[in-house]
Queue: 3 jobs
Job 1
Amino acid sequence: MKRLNSFAAELLNLSTVPEQEFTVENPREGWVFIAGDPKRGAAIRVNGEQVRCRRRDGWLEAMRYLPEGEFTVSGDGALNRLVVRTIPELVYSLFRYDPHVPEFGPYD
C-alpha cells in the first residue's frame, strides 16, 4: 500500500497487466476506486464478478464498497494498466443549510 495523500492510498498499480487475478488487501471497510486502460472488449472483475464501469478519458472506472480484507481483481487480459485505490467517503455541507431529506435534521 502506498499512501498518496491524507485521503487516498494506492493498493495496486500495474503498467502491464498479465492475464491473471490479483489479490489485493483492503486495509479497512470502505470505498475502493478501480480503473483500467482498456484494449478492445475489456472488462474489469472484482471477486470474479464483472464490474459495471464508466468510460472516462479512455479509461474504465468503477467504485465498489468493499469489506476489510482480501479481494481479487482482474482485467480479463485486455487492459494496458490497472489501478486500485482506497478512498474515504466524503460529505460536503454548508453551515446553516438544511438537507433535502428532513429526517437528517439541520446541519449546524
Note: The radius of gyration is 17 Å.
Job 2
Amino acid sequence: MSAHFHASLKVPASSNSSIGTVPARQGWLALTLAVPSRLWREVQLRRATRNLEGMDDRMLGDIGIGRADIEVVVRNGRHVLPYL
C-alpha cells in the first residue's frame, strides 16, 4: 500500500480503496449544503411557533399543549412533555 499527498488538497491519498479518507473538498461541500438547510429549518420552526402563538388558549388546549410549552413542542415534539 502506498500513500502520497495530493498536491492541491494536502490530504493523504491512498491506492487502497478500503481506507476511507474524505478529501477536504467533500467536507466543505457538506458544510456548504448544511448551512442553507439549517437556516431553512429555523425559518420553518419560527413560522410554526408564530402560528401556535396566534392561537387562543382553548385551541392550544384542544391539541394538547399549553402556551408555555409552545417553543418546546415546536422544537422537540409533544412526546417530551411530562404530562402527556
Note: The mean pLDDT is 78.
Job 3
Amino acid sequence: MNELYALGELMTRPLHGYLLHNILNRTVGPIRQISWGTLYPLIRRLEKEGFIEQVQDDELTAGRGKKKKTYQITEEGKTQFYRLMEEPIPYSSDYEMHFHIKMGNFSQVTEDVKLIILHQYKDFLRFNYRHIKDHKSYVSETDEIPSSEVQYIVTIHDHILMQIELNESWVEKQILEVKRGWGR
C-alpha cells in the first residue's frame, strides 16, 4: 500500500522525502500517520529495486544548508506502479485505505483499470455485507449471547450494513461516471 502511494505520487513529478511524507500523512488523515521509520526504509528499498532514483536538487533546506534528497520514478517504477494498480487488494483492515490510494491515482490509468478497481471494491463491499448479515442472524438466534447484549450488537450490525449500502450506492455512481467518460 505504501509502495503504491509513493510510486503514485512520483508519477507526476519528482519529490523529496519530506514532501512525500507530508502529502501521505495529509492523505491518510489524522488518526493514521506514516512515520519516518516507515517512509525512509521504503524509499531506500524502492531505490535499491530500481523503481525510483535520486535526482540532483540544488534547493537548500531552510536554514540548514543541507541539500534535499529528491526522487523521481524510473521506467521500472512506472511498470511496477501499473502492476500494483491492477493487482487485486487483499481483504484486510487496510482495504479501504488501499482502495483510496488506488482511486487517488485514477488520473494515471485507463478507464478499464478504473472499472476493475471499482468492481473489486464493490465485491469487497458485498463480501462484508454478507458477512455482517450472517453475524447479525447468528446473534439474533443464539442463546450464547446474553439477551441484554443482543439488541446492541444487532444495532451495531445495522449501522455497519447501512454504511455498506451507502458505499455500494456511491461505487455504483462512480462506475457509471467512468462508463460515461468513454464517449468523450
Note: The chain is about 65% helix and 5% strand.
